[in-house]
Amino acid sequence: MKLTDISELGEFALIKRLTEKTKIHHKETIKGIGDDAAVIQQNNKTTLISSDLLIEGVHFNLAYAPLKHLGYKSVVVNLSDIFAMNATPKQILVNIGVSSRFPAEALDELYAGIHKACEIYNVDLIGGDTSSSQKGLIISVTAIGEGDKDKVVYRNTANEKDLICVSGDLGGAYAGLRVLERENEVFQKNPEIQPDLSPYRYITERQLKPEARGDVIKKLKEHNVIPTSMIDVSDGLSSELMHICKNSNKGCYIYEEKIPIADETKVFAEETLIPSTIFALNGGEDYELLFTIKQKDYDIVKNMPEISVIGHIEAPEKGLYLCTPDNKEIPLEAQGWNTFDKPKDTEQKS
Ligand code: ADP
Ligand code: MG
After folding, report:
1. Which residue minimizes the CA distance to atom 15 of ligand 1?
2. Which residue in 56, 98, 321, 327 has the fewest CB atoms around it within 10 Å?
3. Atom from ligand 1 closest to the CA of residue 34
4. Could you give the CA distance from residue 267 to residue 270 in angstroms, rounded to a whole number?
5. What is the Cα Rg of the chain in Å?
6. What number does the ligand 1 atom closest to the CA of 11 have?
7. Sheet containing 45-55, strands listed edge to edge, beginning at the edge strand earlier in sequence
8. Rounded CA gap, 219 and 26, in Å?
9. Measured between alpha carbons, how far is 66 from 208 in angstroms, rounded to an integer?
10. pLDDT tens across the length of the chain (350 residues)
11. How far is CA 166 from CA 61, 92, 129, 258, 287, in A?
12. Closest ligand 1 atom, CA of 36?
C-alpha cells in the first residue's frame, strides 16, 4: 500500500482526515472542531477554548525573535482565536518543552513576555506543563474565554449581501518576516554587518509582537454591532475568506483597492517586486479580524477608523473573486501556509 505523504495532503486535509470520525458525547459541547475556538455551554455559561502550538525552527527563529516577544506572541495568537468568536479571554495554560541549551534566565525572558500579555489582556495564567525536549523550544498555549450564548460568532453564518470587513492592516507581519530573514542571512554571512531595521520598525513589530484585536470586539459591542460571521487572520486574507465562504456555503467579491495595507508594507513590497496585495492575500500572522456585517450596520462601521469594508458576500455559484482597480476579476485561491511543505525554504509556517 502506498503511504500518504502529509506534505501533499496539507494541513487542512490532514486535520479533516484525522478528525472526521470524531464523536461528540456531551450535549454541553456546542461546537467542537472547525472554528477558531470550541464552544461549551453549561447552564447559562458559555465557555470558549482554543489551543496553538509553536515550534522552534518551524514557527519561530530565535536568531531574530527575542524570547520576551515570543512569550508575548504565543499568548496573543491564542487570545485572537477567542476574540474571533466574539468572546472575552479569561485564562491561559502554558505548556513548554525545553532543551538543555536554554539557561533558566532565557526562560525567565519567555515568561516575562507571557506575564506582560496576561497583564495587558487581563487574563490569568492558571497552569500548564513542563518537559525537556531533545532539540529546541516548543510552546503550546490554551486560552479559555467567556461569551454570551446568543452572541458567539461562528465562521459558517455569513449571509448573501453581508458586507465583508477587516480590522487594521494586512500583509505587514509577512513583510516583517521577510525583512528579518533577509537581514539574518546577511548577518550570518558577515557578522560584522549589524542590521539596520529602523526603516522597517512597524512591519518587524507586526511579525515579532502582534496584538489581538480585543479593542475591535469591544467597540463593536459598544455600538451594538454583532458580526454575522468572523475569523481571525492567521493564514492570510485569501485563506480566511475561503474558510468563511466554504463554511457558510457562499461566494464573495472583494475590491483590491479597499484592502488596508500599511505604507511600510507597500514600500517593502516594492523592494521585493511582489505586489503588496499578494502580501495581504497570502501572507500570514496579522491576527486582525475578518468579519461580515448586515448592510444596516454599514453607517456605524464606516465611521470606525480601525475597520475597512472590503467587499460583500455573494451566492455560492458566484465563486470567490478579487476585483482589481482596472475591473479585472481574479479568482481567489487558498494559499495560506502549508505547515507540511517540504523544507525548500526557511519561511515560517503557522
Ligand atoms: P486556527 O488557525 O484558528 O488556530 P486551525 O486551522 O489550527 O485553526 O484548526 C482548525 C480546527 O481544527 C480547530 O477547530 C482546531 O481545534 C482543530 N484541530 C486542529 N488540529 C487538530 C488536531 N490535531 N486534533 C483535533 N482537532 C484539531
Ligand atoms: Mg483562528
Report:
1. 33
2. 327
3. 14
4. 5
5. 20
6. 6
7. 29-31, 38-42, 45-55, 138-147, 88-98, 124-132
8. 34
9. 8
10. 889 999 888 888 999 999 999 999 999 999 999 999 999 999 999 999 999 999 999 999 999 999 999 999 999 999 999 999 999 999 999 999 999 999 999 999 999 999 999 999 999 999 999 999 999 999 999 999 999 999 999 999 999 999 999 999 999 999 999 999 999 988 888 888 888 888 899 999 999 999 999 999 999 999 999 999 999 999 999 999 999 999 999 999 999 999 999 999 999 999 999 999 999 999 999 999 999 999 999 999 999 999 999 999 999 999 999 999 999 999 997 654 444 454 434 445 44
11. 29, 26, 35, 10, 11
12. 3
Q: Which residues line ligand 1 (CB under 6 A)?
A: 15, 18-19, 33-36, 52, 81, 234
pTM strictly above 0.85: yes
CA separation for the pair 335, 340 (Å, rounded):
13
Reading phi first (left if > 0) and then psi (alpha if -120 to 50, else beta), residue 34 is in: left
| Closest C-alpha residue for ligand 1 atom 3 | 36
Question: Checking DSSP bridges between strand 289-293 and strand 163-167, what pairing results, if any?
Answer: antiparallel
Grid cell locating 57 = 525552527
Query: Residue 325 burial (CB < 10 Å; 0-12/13-18/19+)?
Result: exposed
Helix count and strand count (H, E) for the chain: 11, 13
140: cell is: 503550546
| Cell numbers for 316 | 455560492
Count of other CB atoms within 10 angstroms of residue 277? 20
Q: Measuring CA to CA, which residue among 106, 120, 110 is closest to residue 76?
A: 120
Ligand 1 center to residue 145 CA distance, Å?
17
Residue nearest to ligand 1 atom 17, measured at CA: 33
Interval between CA 51 and ligand 2 midpoint (Å): 10
Q: Which ligand is nearest to the CA of 239?
A: 1
Q: Quick one: cell of 102?
A: 536554554
